[in-house]
Design a protein that fits this description.
TIM Barrel; 334 residues; 12 strands; eight-stranded parallel beta sheet; single chain; 38% helix; alpha/beta
């Protein structure tokens, strides 16, 4: 199966005619869903079916469904705690596994391939956009809990995505609205922020999403546009052979690379396998019309690993003792 390198978003709770055309374009290989795309379980089920029926080739359907502040589907889904809560009890390993499994099982029950999770950033207490989205302030604790979290995801049929490489937690700026710069030396980043990524890569982390952060002592480009970070560090030094997703190219942190066409081409040239263009329909159309996104066969093959594995349908899932126990545990933390 061939999966193309562009992931785009949708405006509402059902497909428009324009969106059907965009989904059928040869460059489109993925869709990311947001809160605006969700009204009910039944509506979401119909939307996912429509997406899959519309596309001509393989399509990845994704979402950001971490829990806490970042949970796109609320009504009829379990309210998940922020993952920072998981290290606050005596059963943190079990809680991490349960959180990962429950999140993934409920998302996979809707035939959505994956959620962009887990966050592997360190919570240094300075980044509001990261904050309690991070497991902990200790990189070893993050590695340990993320290992259990990913085991839970995989048991529910979902591939993992570690973000935001090599670490977004030490900057105060939010890359959605500003251009963050991290001036720490390489040695400091390697002694802390890189550790969770390196450990999880050894265990087979499926995908990585780099940060729209400029690490000014190391490179003048944000990590997601940097051949140094993506090819020298990720591919060669850390021996990562999974998928590299860009973060959303419409974010302010990506603006230093030029217009949408330039951003998409730079991200692919740096080593991304798929680029995300969200929340700006004209940006999507510009990339489709103008960008030269050269994709290798190996890159497309990597993307197929993100296809969701077998899963229970929603009614069967909600009828299991395992689901009920996981809901009870996560509700207590939330």
């Amino acid at each position: 199966m061939h999966i193309a390198p562009l992931m785009l978003d949708l405006d509402g709770i059902e497909l428009s005619e324009e969106e059907k055309e965009l989904l059928q374009h040869p460059l489109t290989g993925g869709v990311i869903l947001f809160t605006r795309n969700y009204e009910s379980v039944e509506q979401l089920n119909q939307l996912v079916k429509a997406i899959r029926a519309t596309t001509n080739t393989g399509i990845l359907i994704s979402v950001d469904h971490e829990g806490g502040r970042v949970q796109r589907f609320r009504k009829e889904f379990t309210e998940l705690p922020a993952i920072a809560k998981l290290s606050e009890n005596d059963h943190s390993e079990k809680s991490s596994y349960q959180h990962g499994w429950l999140m993934a099982a409920e998302v996979r029950a809707m035939d959505i391939d994956f959620s962009f999770a887990p966050v592997l950033d360190i919570n240094y207490g300075v980044s509001e956009v990261i904050g309690d989205r991070a497991f902990n302030q200790d990189p070893q604790v993050i590695s340990h809990l993320a290992t259990e979290y990913i085991k839970g995801m995989r048991d529910a049929g979902m591939a993992s995505t570690g973000k935001h490489f090599p670490g977004h937690g030490a900057v105060t700026e939010d890359s959605h609205h500003e251009i963050p710069r991290d001036s720490r030396p390489r040695t400091e980043i390697w002694q802390a922020d890189i550790i969770p990524f390196a450990e999880l890569i050894k265990q087979g982390l499926d995908a990585v999403m780099p940060a729209h952060v400029i690490y000014s002592e190391i490179d003048d480009k944000p990590a997601g546009f940097s051949p140094y970070w993506l090819q020298t560090v990720l591919r060669k030094e850390l021996n990562f052979d999974g998928v590299i997703f860009s973060d959303d190219l419409t974010m302010e942190g990506a603006s230093v690379m030029g217009g949408f066409t330039e951003r998409a081409e730079a991200a692919m040239h740096a080593g991304c396998d798929m680029v995300l263009v969200c929340n700006n329909r004209q940006g999507v159309i510009e990339v489709i019309d103008k960008a030269k996104l050269e994709q290798s066969e190996k890159s497309s093959q990597r993307l197929t690993r993100m296809i969701g594995k077998s899963h229970m349908n929603r009614s069967a899932l909600l009828d299991t003792k395992r689901w009920a126990e996981a809901v009870d545990e996560m509700s207590a933390l939330a």
